[in-house]
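Now for a specimen:

…
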Amino acid sequence: MGAYILRRLLLIIPTLLGIMIINFTLVQFVPGGPVEQIIAQLQGHGDVTEGFAGGSDAGGPTTPTGGDDQSVGSRGLPPEFIAQLEKEFGFDKPPLQRFLDMMWRYMRLDFGESYFRSIGVIDLVIEKMPVSITLGLWSTLIAYIVSIPLGIRKAVKDGSAFDTWTSGAIIVAYAIPGFLFAILLLVLFAGGSFWQVFPLRGLTSDNWDELSAWGRVADYFWHITLPVVASTISAFATLTLLTKNSFLDEIKKHYVITARAKGLSEGRVLYGHVFRNAMLIVIAGFPAVFIGVFFGGSLIIETIFSLDGLGRLGFEAAVARDYPVMFGTLFIFGLIGLIVGLLSDLMYVLVDPRIDFERREG
């Protein structure tokens, strides 16, 4: 098993490199880089240089704008100023050199600093991480806690009225877009037109610092209820039906018939024999579910519920062409995704020790 883990770890390097090469190449053909963004802002709004030149909110490289920013923006930017901008952003170098320099910094875990904010990429990610962890972790946990028992029950009651109406319910829930369901929750339970049960925005209340320990826990769950429900609703269908079909396939096998013939109880057959084999495919889907909830639906959910997480961070970085944030987060989360994929294989072995990846590859 050690050799297999080593091979998978070594495979992460070319895979991650390929991801970075493809995205870096695509960005070269996208018009409107950070220099163009600054030039457009300067020509349209003379006072935006404050944020770029080290204002309290944005920060970034100091630009030699001279004295009057408004006069510079109105009469056109001199070539020397544009050349200085390109040098400070590093665009005076050819793309290949910029890519190699970037990857060398990433190998040393140096992800640089945001172009437009006086904060490092790692610090920025850590600042936004709690929101995305909240959505991803709780949504995945709730989906598994509900879907696995429900899927097992549906497999046992296959073809019954319970199986029919639960299948209809989860398919309808799957068909509802997450953002539409989130808006519905806001209208119904966040003071839209009906009940003011949950807060409208944010992850904590304004008086968070004044609350007791139990008060903070209650306040935290009070705020995350609607976003977590909205981001979890579509995951129930996939996991439930996957669990049901997996159990149905195992129940029809001969070893289950033999176990029942020996007089074992139905619970012992299901959870002592079928469960281990049927759960393999469900466990294999865990990384996709977690990563999908963690990154995929976070942007819309965070926007609707006014949560400042990684989804909004990535979107704003793409719009502003903040390349250090774009590529830094791509590298970090690409690496996390590949490692989670390896962990799912190790979970295979943990659930069923009969699986031997080294022998299969040999």
